[in-house]
Design a protein that fits this description.
36% of the residues lie in helices and 22% in strands. By secondary structure, the chain is of the alpha/beta class. The strands form 5 sheets. The protein has a 6-stranded parallel β-sheet with strand order 2-1-3-4-5-6, with helices on both faces. It has a 5-stranded mixed barrel with strand order 15-16-17-19-18. The model has no long low-confidence stretch (mean pLDDT 92). The structure holds S-adenosyl-L-homocysteine (SAH), iron/sulfur cluster (SF4) and FE3-S4 cluster. S-adenosyl-L-homocysteine binds next to β13.
Length: 464
């Protein structure tokens, strides 16, 4: 963005502040995955850089942005619902700027629907156009016009200094963008574009910058981190990147998400076992336990391969914690296929997981598949799967009772303002009674009880 425009926006915001004795405010509502959460952090940075302040209250916001997701139909429905609710607000305050960004905006049909049916939207920008936001605001204010900016593929322009948010002492880093796996149910390759890795030197600079800012835990993000680096001019493996990051002083814990089972080499498993900083939690989505369905999903591995991978991980990595994603009711899924999934999850014994009912997505291969499963059968299978999974989570969590674990304290617990919560190395959510000044610190907690989703304990010791 041209500096002159940025300066003008800053002046304009300063003038507003002088007249109204307050800054202009922004509200960002984020739907979807960690990628979007991190993109929202970058958007927040850009807005703060031109003088905006954050607010949670839409009545006092001067700009409202929805960072959208369309992984399943209900994500999309939510966005339309919330957008409809903004209509009266815009009528009351025509100066309010309403903007949409994120994955939904990458699709032409969706943008056309928005333009036709939601004329209260002022800005639309894509997942690869985040840096243009100040410029778009400038043009909108100057010309009072609807502005749209969409680019299908990523031109990497991320700057380490844009990542000033994070949670407590944890920060997120994109190591790659997009996905080319084309799992037949999934819309991500169509909305996030070609798989593109960032240069290791840029990632290392960002890790160093975060460490200098006091962050001690980082989470590396990508749709399929295991294939990181293959498309670079000087290819490098994900394991080699992890080994370089390990050397950055000040970083205590390194996490990453998501691993695709098809690209999980033994050298990565060995490094997770050997590293002093890598979390022993691995998110390894299986999606289904049936070979027939895995093939129809284009996952490129078999049930036997996945189980062997898990066996090798368990063998090598002490304290391994496994989580997964599973879809039920995919087209053509018979009772036998579903039973194969139940058997697989019982055999693996997951610590955590996300379970989904198959949702038809526009433009995907699965959308055109026959043998759709009825809603009743989908719901039935979903409930059965939840029962198995929750049992497994509970067993895994109960094994922590009596043990003392180290956690990074993240926040006040959502359901109880007297409690704090944080996560273990194995990504278990732990709640305990403690003072707010512990947020961002590492503490030792003795675990006293557990359910399927959390551990509960008492503070033993604060660490520096
Ligand atoms: N890149 C990651 C996951 C991205 S989406 C991976 O490959 O594992 C997160 C999860 O949403 C997926 O793992 C899948 O379980 C689920 N999902 C994706 N598309 C879906 C659809 N059309 N219906 C139901 N669940 C879906
Ligand atoms: Fe979607 Fe498959 Fe890519 Fe994951 S790997 S984002 S499920 S296409
Ligand atoms: Fe949703 Fe886009 Fe993530 S579709 S799940 S926000 S990559």
């Amino acid at each position: 963005m041209r500096t002159a425009r940025k300066t003008e926006l800053n002046n304009w915001n300063q003038e507003f502040k002088n007249i109204n004795h307050k800054n202009r405010k922004y509200l960002i509502k984020t739907y979807g995955c960690q990628m979007n959460v991190h993109d929202s952090e970058r958007i927040a940075f850009l807005l703060e850089d031109i003088g905006y302040e954050s607010t949670e209250n839409q009545n006092e916001a001067d700009i409202i942005l929805y960072n959208t997701c369309m992984i399943r139909e209900n994500a999309e429905v939510k966005v339309y619902g919330h957008l409809g609710q903004l209509k009266p607000l815009k009528k009351e305050r025509p100066d309010l700027i309403i903007g949409l960004c994120g994955c939904m905006m990458q699709l032409n049909d969706i943008r056309n629907t928005i333009k036709k049916k939601h004329s209260h939207v002022d800005l639309i920008f894509g997942t690869n156009n985040i840096n243009e936001l100040p410029d778009m605001i400038y043009k909108h204010l100057r010309d009072n016009q609807f502005i749209e900016s969409i680019e299908q593929n990523m031109k990497i322009v991320e700057d380490a200094k844009e990542v000033i948010h994070g949670e407590a002492a944890r920060a997120y880093i994109n190591i790659m963008y997009g996905c080319e796996n084309f799992c037949t149910y999934c819309v991500v390759p169509y909305v996030r574009g070609k798989e593109t890795s960032r240069e290791p030197i840029e990632i290392l600079k960002e890790v160093q910058y975060l460490a200098d800012q006091g962050f001690t835990e980082i989470m590396l993000l990508g749709q399929n981190v295991n294939s990181y680096g293959q498309s670079l001019t000087n290819p490098i493996t994900f394991t080699d990147l992890l080994k370089q990051i390990e050397k950055v002083e000040g970083i205590k814990r390194i996490r990453f998400m998501t691993s695709h089972p098809k690209d999980c080499p033994q050298e990565l498993i060995d490094w997770i076992a050997a590293s002093k900083k890598l979390s022993t939690h691995i998110h390894l989505p299986v999606q289904s336990g049936s070979n027939k369905i895995l093939k129809k999903m284009n996952r490129k591995y078999t049930r036997e391969y996945y189980l062997d991978l898990v066996r090798r991980m368990k063998e090598k990595i002490p304290n391994l914690s496994l989580s997964t994603d599973i879809i039920v009711g995919f087209p053509g899924e018979t009772e036998e296929d579903f039973q194969d999934t139940l058997k697989l999850v019982d055999e693996v014994g997951y610590d955590q997981g996300f379970m989904f009912i198959y949702s038809e997505r526009p433009g995907t291969v699965a959308q055109k598949m026959p043998e759709k499963i009825s809603r009743d059968i989908q719901l039935n299978r979903f409930q059965l799967l939840l029962d198995h999974m929750y049992d497994s989570f509970k067993k895994k969590n109960e094994a922590y009772i009596g043990k003392t674990v180290e956690i990074l304290v993240e926040s006040v617990s959502k359901n109880n303002p007297d409690r704090l919560s944080g996560r273990t190395d194995t990504f278990k959510l732990v709640h305990f009674l403690g003072e707010k000044n512990l947020i961002g610190k590492y503490v030792q907690i003795k675990i006293l009880s557990a359910n399927s989703f959390s551990l509960f304990g008492e503070l033993v010791e604060r660490l520096e």
